[in-house]
Amino acid sequence: MKDRFAVIAALALTVMMSATLLPLAQAAPVSGAIFTTLNNGSVVNGNQYDSKCAVYLDGGPGPHAPAHAAGLPDADYYFQVTDPSGKFLLSTDIVSNRRFRVGGGVITAYLGSVTALAHPTGIDQDHGAVTIRLANNTCPTDFLDSPNNGGAYKVWATPVSDFVGNPEQVDSDCGNGCFHGFLPAKSKTDNFRKSGIATFCLTVVGASSFYVTDPLGVVNHYFTDATGTLVICGLGEGTYTVTDGSTTQTFTWTADMPPPTIVFEGQPG
Predict the structure, then answer these.
(1) SS3 at position 6
(2) Rounded mean pLDDT, 57-76
(3) 61 and 112 share a domain?
(4) Are residues 217 and 124 in the same domain?
């Protein structure tokens, strides 16, 4: 009889321990890392950017790190931009439009649901991963300016399975300890800043090489990739002239305008 009671007591203790450990296992943080970068995944100076339109999300290994380093678990994720405290949501599109996929520890695809508000993507120069612009194609309208006096922002990424709320809404009130549907214990975050100088990224398509004359009259020669495309970031306000040697296009950019795209027909030899 004593042995029977001993077995029952041991089983009860096992059940109690399992019940105690379960919440701890559920609260385990997401492994890996995310970071902000430029469209090609290159290193930036202290996570400071001249323009909201130049900030891209990357995940997993940083520049020059091994491909397996700091990899996110393979899954689908949502991302958001807030102020550093997380109190103020600054992303303006619905959550399902801020969805991406991770495979092999790196971002492999942007899965936004609203074509008209798509987030532009790039390719990480080290690992071939996809980079995703934090602002959609209405930039600089999206995302909103941070109320933080230092111009600081926070980007979050959380697995779709751990999101709390309705992804077809912009925001979800998920209670204390939860930020717009994102739980800190289930999310990865990274802070960045925007400086006071507005810049933009120029996209040129359809030329093997081209020349850009900036507002100061300085001429720079650029070469595109195998698809005849190149994105140049860090350009300031003013009037620019772009030529592929046979066709010339001129435009003027100010801080309230979306980033321009120049398209040439054909690729000169």
Answers:
(1) helix
(2) 72
(3) yes
(4) no
Q: Which of 143, 164, 168, 162 has its CA nearest to residue 154?
A: 143
Residue 153: closest CA among 64, 104, 83: 83
Residue 5 lies in a domain: no
Domain co-membership, 117 together with 217 = no
pLDDT beyond 90 at 124: no
For 209, the domain range is: 200-263
Q: Which two tokens stand for residue 250?
A: 């001129």
CA dist., res. 131 & res. 62, Å (int): 12
Beta-strand ranges (E) seen in 94-218 are: 99-103, 106-110, 121-123, 130-133, 152-159, 188-194, 200-205, 209-213
The reply to whether 119 and 224 lie within a common domain is: no
Cα distances (angstroms) measured from residue 269 to each of 206, 209, 266: 12, 9, 9
Residue 230 and residue 180 share a domain: no
- Specify the pTM: 0.64
Which amino acid, one-letter code, is at 200?
Answer: F
- Indicate left, alpha or beta for 249 from its phi (over 0: left) and psi (-120 to 50: alpha): beta
**pLDDT score of 263:** 95
Q: Assess whether 53 and 174 both reside in one domain.
A: yes
